[in-house]
Amino acid sequence: MNGRFRRRLPCAAPLLCLLACSTPETTAIPRQEGFIATEDGSRIRYVMMGEGEQVVMIPMAEYLTDPLAPLAVDRRLLFYDPRSRGPSDRARPGTATEDREVRDMEALRTATGIDSMAVLGWSGLGKQVAVYASRHPTRVTRIVQVSPVPPSSDTYPPEEGAPPRENRVDAAAVQAVDEQWRSGRFEGDGEEYCRQRMNLTQHASFADTSRWRAAPDLCAFANEWPHNLSEYFGELLPSFGAFDWRDSIRAVGRPRLVVHGREDGIPLSGARAWVEGDPQARLLVLSPAGHFPFLEQPEPFFEAVDAFLRGRAPPGAQSIPIG
Predict the structure, then answer these.
(1) What is the percent of the chain with per-residue pLDDT over 70, rounded to a whole number?
(2) pLDDT tens digits for 71-116?
(3) What residue segments make up the domains of the chain, in order of their start?
(4) How many CB atoms lie within 10 A of CB 153?
(5) CA–CA separation, 205 vs 291, rounded Å?
(6) Most buried by CB count within 10 Å: which residue of 46, 97, 116, 180?
């Protein structure tokens, strides 16, 4: 592994210090990064951050490495970018499947010499880490699902006061930019196309829409350009088939924390369904918060997740008995 290390700065309350001072110059967190090759030769980019015995594997490094850096106190965070995301290799035809992505997680664990670990997944990866845990239960110690998609392919109605994400976007403006792309307006400049589209859509993921620029900008990576993402998801999503992971994740028998923003366009009912009837699972609802609760409600988010990873009761999280 190629390493880049920074000296740790003293702080009486490390987590609060990082929350207040999380810049590349002041976090002082040891960091390594590089690529591992999967069984089919595709390169997956990873970032290892922090020190400590506990390891937490987190998909979507480019989105989450900096925002989740406060969790790298007395533990190691193993971020990575799935194939066709960030700087990882583009998925070859036929390899953008849920099964392959779960196998990539196991390949990364093996390559980095980790015996067991906690897993944290955000958005669609909130489901993926549950699938990984159900297939490799002896490798998983704790599970955190942040703003997860629902656990089954059955649809859940949107909550009152939290309209679906697509209803928060000016569809005509997005269509106009897409038509400019198809007409060749952005030929040779997919990054600009990505950025113009992001300017029209990213706000929809926030309860406070004025804060949308706090989200990481991934448009420098060709994998993140809208037409490439569309191709990737066009292959990945059908690979899910009809699914319901509720019984499988309960059978894993590991402590689990689900964190969801009340104003997220992904319905809260889906988050509740992940937790309902599982004595090992807890739900923390944060408000006001959309799809990025760690950006809109950082203090309660990090307090709860850090406590959970340390084996303590996460403040504000509740169990949900079967209704």
Answers:
(1) 88
(2) 999 999 999 999 999 999 999 999 999 999 999 999 999 999 999 9
(3) 2-160+238-309, 165-227
(4) 12
(5) 5
(6) 46
